[in-house]
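YM 10:42: YlqD protein sequence, as discussed on the call
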Amino acid sequence: MLTLCKKRERDIGLSLFLHLKRGASLKVIKKIPVKVVLTENEREAQNNRLDHQLERMEREVEQFHFERKKMEKKHGSLPSNIDERLTQEVRQRKAKIQTLQYHKEQLEILPDFHEFTIEEIESVVEVKEGMEWKKLQEKEIVIENGFVKRVRDG
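YM 10:58: structure's back
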């Protein structure tokens, strides 16, 4: 028998409490980190990825400036809500640019064979009564040169 009772997520950190009968198990969806081993090829690939993201963010900032000038030319001064929104969007893109630049700098500093997280994927995990919670939290996938090198399972 499975009973679900909802609680406020910010109060407890989980959206659902699951009450299980003794000896029962449950399959849940959990985010698993995917890590990459930093090799010379991977460093170059990550650098290219960051360069593309930087270029895209810079183009978006330019586009917002262009749109602002176009609207000002057409309507005179901009309504405050539109002006604030454009300013906010530009500010967000510039913050993202700073973050990407920082990541590029860190990429150059990191030693070869350092592992770093590139994404998280969702995985179905079986949770059993009496299971050590820490082992469930330690799952991760490690990739080297485009191939899964190992799957750490707690």
